[in-house]
Q: What sequence folds into this?
């Protein structure tokens, strides 16, 4: 129930952006009874999405790294509403929430309405297969913790099955569509996992694994500097991972990929990691959306239709400061937007003038297996130099991104304790989840 007299700020989506915003507003306003902060999510736990490739390979155990929203809300001055948003009544200022249905068809949370004075939509994105024939049916995706867990089980089962065949020339073929950070990180992580499993005694040998990254552009990591793409290509090739650039997928079937030029790539496991878009139902809310179903917002993150409704992160199309292309769908953008909105919301609500949101790119960092990453820091040290770091130094910067998210969500002291706990746990337990 809403608390009488307090302004209600409702945030829908507790991901990279929404959870950080709910935490900051909860501590600043909710705990001090200056506003009622409500977070709505259809999942009951949060896992930071850039870690999903580690979940998919068992390098990260969701049971240990996920944040339970109920407990987190209780400790951080906000209220958690469990449920999937299904609609919006802007006249009555209520968000509609559908029933949450459990795995056996039981209703876990009833359909209801949640009233708001200010609404922030931070709903994330879904995979975009661009309508490619067969992709939806024959590919696996890596967009939710459920997707990652299904992929983990599939990789585990197939690697045991091929190993158990006793045929040393039989291969496990994995095709990954998309040579962006997600595809590259996933390929390297799977390769590392198979090598580690073999060291533990699994029969599948690294030589039996054949991973192909299929990319339509002429190089992988196409939005990063060319030198960085080259470094990543070399690092992948050292690991025996194949990179097929200039390769557009025309069709997917149960045996693999058919490319636009007629070539085929056989794949036992097919993963689609190329592109994201907003969920289709975002077009039904009466808010302006773009071709990718993203909600169009101004440079103050307010929707074009309603200044009491904000959108951030992957579900929003935010103009970059120079009026060019909209900002990319990355955790960096979602994080900076959440911090900016937490500091500006009160002024915006009071109708005071504020400086528009300005994205400050921190560079591109891509993990390549357990010990290596590659980072382009041109946007940090200055655009004139194409400066980048590689190897363990870059891996340290990469790992620090997650620690920054943990600090935003738990505070610095707890984030440091969690980091020490992780180190201890990894020293005491196998580094892979093999069950
Ligand atoms: C495998 C992978 C690797 C990535 N690596 C990087 C990286 O290295 N660096 C980087 O910057 N970015 C990376 N990204 C992108 C990054 O994860 C996203 O840009 C970021 O998570 C977007 O944050 P968000 O808050 O907009 O949405 P999300 O973090 O996706 O959160 C959306 C939340 O909304 C909830 N939700 C969705 N629909 C509803 C609904 N109807 N009702 C209620 N709740 C709902 C979801 O349950 C979820 O909790 C990666 C993405 C993936 C998939």
A:
């Amino acid at each position: 129930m809403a608390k009488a007299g307090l302004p209600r700020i409702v945030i829908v989506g507790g991901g990279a952006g929404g959870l950080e915003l709910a935490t900051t507003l909860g501590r600043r306003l909710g705990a001090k009874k200056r506003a009622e902060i409500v977070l709505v999510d259809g999942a009951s736990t949060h896992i930071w999405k850039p870690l999903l490739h580690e979940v998919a390979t068992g390098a990260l155990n969701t049971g240990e790294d996920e944040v339970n929203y109920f407990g987190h809300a209780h400790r951080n001055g906000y209220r958690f509403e469990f449920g999937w948003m299904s609609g919006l009544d802007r006249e009555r200022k209520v968000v509609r929430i559908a029933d949450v249905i459990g795995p056996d068809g039981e209703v876990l949370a009833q359909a209801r309405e949640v009233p708001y004075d200010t609404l922030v939509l931070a709903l994330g994105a879904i995979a975009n297969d661009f309508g490619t024939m067969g992709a939806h049916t024959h590919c696996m995706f890596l967009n939710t913790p459920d997707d990652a867990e299904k992929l983990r089980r599939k990789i585990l089962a197939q690697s045991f099955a091929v190993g158990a065949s006793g045929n040393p020339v039989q291969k496990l073929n994995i095709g990954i569509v998309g040579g962006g950070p997600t595809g590259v990180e996933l390929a390297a992580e799977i390769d590392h996992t198979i090598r580690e499993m073999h060291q533990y005694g699994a029969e599948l040998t690294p030589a039996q694994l054949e991973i192909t990254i299929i990319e339509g552009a002429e190089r992988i990591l196409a939005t990063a500097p060319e030198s960085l793409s080259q470094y990543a290509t070399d690092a992948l090739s050292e690991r025996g991972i194949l990179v097929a650039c200039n390769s557009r997928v025309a069709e997917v079937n149960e045996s693999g990929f058919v490319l636009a030029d007629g070539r085929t790539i056989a794949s036992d496991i097919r993963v689609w990691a190329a592109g994201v878009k907003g969920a289709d139902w975002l077009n039904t809310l009466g808010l302006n959306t773009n071709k990718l179903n993203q909600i169009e917002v101004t440079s103050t993150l307010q929707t074009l239709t309603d200044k009491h409704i904000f959108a951030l992160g992957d579900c929003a199309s935010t103009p970059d400061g120079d009026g060019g292309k909209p900002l990319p769908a990355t955790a960096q953008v979602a994080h900076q937007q959440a911090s900016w909105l937490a500091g500006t919301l009160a002024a915006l609500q009071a109708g005071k003038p504020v400086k528009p949101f300005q994205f400050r790119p921190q560079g591109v960092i891509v993990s390549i297996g357990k010990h290596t990453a590659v980072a382009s820091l041109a946007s940090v040290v200055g655009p004139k130099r194409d400066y980048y770091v590689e190897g363990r130094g870059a891996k340290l910067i990469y790992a620090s991104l997650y620690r920054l998210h943990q600090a935003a969500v738990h505070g610095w002291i707890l984030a440091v304790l969690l980091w020490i706990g992780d180190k201890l746990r990894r020293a005491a337990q196998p580094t892979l989840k093999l069950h």
The longest strand covers residues 36-41. Residues 297 and 303 are 4 Å apart (CA to CA).
